[in-house]
Amino acid sequence: MQLNQRKAAIIGCGFVGSATAFCLMQSGLFSEIVLQDVDKDKAEGEAMDITHGTPFAGRMKIYAGNYNDMMDAAVIIITAGANQKEGETRLDLVKKNKKIFEEIIPEISNRDYEGILLIVSNPVDILTYTAIKISGFEENRVIGSGTVLDSARFRYLLGKHLDVDSRSVQAFIIGEHGDSEIAAWSSVNVSGIPVNDFCEMRGHYDHEEAMKAIADNVKESAYKIIKRKKATYYGIAMSVKRICEVILKDEKAILPVSTMMHGAHGIEDIVLSMPAIVGKNGIETQVPIELNEEEERKLKQSARILKQMIGIKKD
Ligand code: 6V0
């Protein structure tokens, strides 16, 4: 089926799915968005509510639909599934959400969908792996949002610390989107200037303490937000919008998305986040990132944790 490059579908219209739809509606990237949820009323209600904003944003169709309605969408975004509750880790969600993916993915692959699957539900690395395996799709077109959000949090906090626009900060969180994620400090720079030099330029000299505080803050962000408002959704919605933009405009921008590993850093048959070039066909290639010994050790540890989680069986 011919894909419509101006069409997206969102499966799961909870906090994340609806915030994403709202964000995409305002982005001007799409002229048609299909919303789907097991709770059909929820999908319909969100479609109605968001549509009422279009007179301020531009003409487009947003409607509740089914799997058949999605097959010509350039991107299908999956946000269906339970979210993290207070005290739960993302990996606690593995059993519940793997089961949901075993229902959703065949609905898409059995219809020979040819576009890009963007996985957002958590644990995103494991569910992206599950989606690749169940669908049998080429790996480049099954993308996990990975640590795009974590890296945005990292850049935001660095920008704040250094009093500089976070868009000038190059910084990646890699590995699992979760507790074992790694702040890749070795490659952090501000407009090409190594981060420690930039810190000193801005009057900060206690690098160790600041680095620990910032990396901990990134890692704890989701927990802190969930404690206060039960769920996180605006930051991830903006992250999904950025990934869609990079795909639709064939930007070939470098994003830390979840992709299948094939031996880089001695890691294979696991999905985790590494910087990768993303364009109209999804993931073009991973790009090497400079890691010191400790970062390398932590990355391997993160892969081991994910591998153990993949082995978890359903009840
Ligand atoms: P939510 O508000 O509970 O919404 C989930 C929605 O999924 C509900 O509306 C359900 O009805 C629907 N749903 C469940 N099963 C199905 C199914 N089989 N088909 C279609 N719809 C279904 O959760 P919320 O929106 O807060 O979170 C959704 C997922 O996103 C969770 O797994 C979160 O952990 C994850 N997040 C991922 C982030 C990331 O960075 N990747 C960030 C935030 C949340």
Can you put this structure into words, describing what you see?
With 315 residues, the protein is α/β, with parallel strands linked by helices. 43% of the residues lie in helices and 21% in strands. The chain is built from ten helices and 14 strands. The chain has helices at 15-27, 40-51, 67-70, 94-109, 124-135, 148-162, 195-201, 207-229, 234-248, 293-310, and strands at 4-11, 32-36, 61-64, 73-78, 116-119, 142-144, 169-170, 173-174, 182-183, 189-190, 193-194, 253-262, 268-279, 282-286. The strands form four sheets. It has a six-stranded parallel beta sheet with strand order 3-2-1-4-5-6, with helices on both faces. The chain has a three-stranded antiparallel beta sheet with strand order 7-10-11. Strands 12-13-14 form a three-stranded antiparallel beta sheet. β2, α2 (40-51) and β3 form a beta-alpha-beta unit. It starts with a strand and ends in a 5-residue tail after the last helix. The model has no long low-confidence stretch (mean pLDDT 95). The protein binds ligand 6V0. Ligand 6V0 is lined by residues 11-17, 36-39, 42, 79-84, 93, 97, 100, 103-104, 120-122, 124, 145, 149, 177, 231-233, 236.
